[in-house]
Amino acid sequence: MTRADLVASMAAESGWTKAASDRALRALLASIRTSLKRGQPVTLVGFGTFSVGRRKARKGKNPRTGQPMNVAGGHTPRFKPSPELKRAIR
Description:
Layout: H1 3-14, H2 18-37, E1 42-44, E2 48-55, E3 58-61, E4 68-71, E5 74-81, H3 83-89
Antiparallel strand pairs: 1-2, 2-5, 3-4
Helix pairs in contact: 1-2
């Protein structure tokens, strides 16, 4: 499903226009992004939890040369589906 398909589905389910549904989707994604930037998890009951995970720095290998290299650590987004979502897709 593409973003356009999702917007069309939201519009059909809610009775809103596609433009209003697109604005709502953009606002939702922006709110999730802002919360994650602050390090706050976002829980959508019945869907799942978005959070920020920490990756440690590690040693790696350059695939071209085979030389060892350092891979920097950082933050990565994570998603844990709720039990309801897991049951729904089984």
